[in-house]
Amino acid sequence: MATYTQDPGAPDPAYLRFWRERHLCTLTTLRPDGSPHVVPVGVTYDPEARLARVITNKSSTKVAHVLAAGSEGARVAVCQVDGRRWATLEGRAAVRTDRARVAEAERRYAERYERTPAPNPDRVVIEIELARAMGQG
Questions:
Q1: Given a cut of 70, is residue 34 above it in pLDDT?
Q2: What value does the mean pLDDT take over residues 23-44?
Q3: Is the overall model pTM greater than 0.85, yes or no?
Q4: In this structure, which long-range contacts are made by residues 15-22, counting pairs with CB atoms below 8 Å and at least 24 apart in sequence?
Q5: 23, 65, 120, 135: which has the fewest Cβ within 10 Å?
Q6: How much of the chain exceeds pLDDT 70, in percent?
Q7: What's the total number of domains in the chain?
Q8: What is the mean pLDDT of residues 44-64?
Q9: Phi, psi (degrees; rounded to nearest 5) at 129
Q10: What is the enclosing helix (H) or strand (E) of 15?
Q11: Which of 39, 44, 62, 47 is nearest to 107 (CA)?
Q12: Residue 101 sits in which domain range?
């Protein structure tokens, strides 16, 4: 079983297949004191755009942490695990409220998780501009 780092914009086929499987993930953001805040989320991975997306409520703690980082975005990681297989994507996150971006994130979520998210007028998307992809599988 190999551990590897790769370009998140050009993942190998096995890595991409793993990210297309239905798995619960985690999102790690940083609190103002620098300690990690880790929560379960659904994540979609778009290597062509070099983005990972997390849909959430605009009043969530994770959104507050990303917004607190300012215009450069928050350094975050998303991860999924299945037995001995794991995959992590790292990058800078920004909160997007544009309805078209939220709708695209909802569409991708519905595709990966095989269920349409319930309507939520307070939904936003955390978009993560990816800098690193790591995994073992």
A1: yes
A2: 97
A3: yes
A4: 15/87, 15/133, 15/135, 15/137, 16/45, 16/47, 18/80, 18/82, 18/85, 18/87, 18/135, 18/137, 19/45, 19/80, 19/87, 20/45, 20/112, 21/82, 22/112, 22/113, 22/114
A5: 120
A6: 99
A7: 1
A8: 98
A9: -75, 115
A10: helix 13-20
A11: 44
A12: 3-136
Residues 66, 74: contact at Cβ < 8 Å?
yes
Per the structure block, which two tokens stand in for 60?
Answer: 């969530």
CA distance 26 to 121: 24
- State the pLDDT confidence band at 2, using cuts at 50, 70 and 90: low
Which ranges in 81-130 belong to alpha helices (H)?
99-113
Transcribe 36-79 into DSSP letters. EEEEEE--EEETTTTEEEEEEETTSHHHHHHHHT-TT-EEEEEE
Predicted pLDDT of residue 95: 98
CB atoms within 10 A of CB 25: 21
Mean pLDDT confidence for 30-49:
97
Q: Are 82 and 18 in contact (CB under 8 A)?
A: yes
| Cross-strand partners of 96 | 125
Q: Is the predicted pLDDT of residue 3 greater than 90, yes or no?
A: no
Q: Give ∠ CA 86-87-89 in degrees, rounded to 5.
A: 155
Distance (Å, whole) CA 80 – CA 77: 10
Structure tokens of 126? Answer: 């955390």
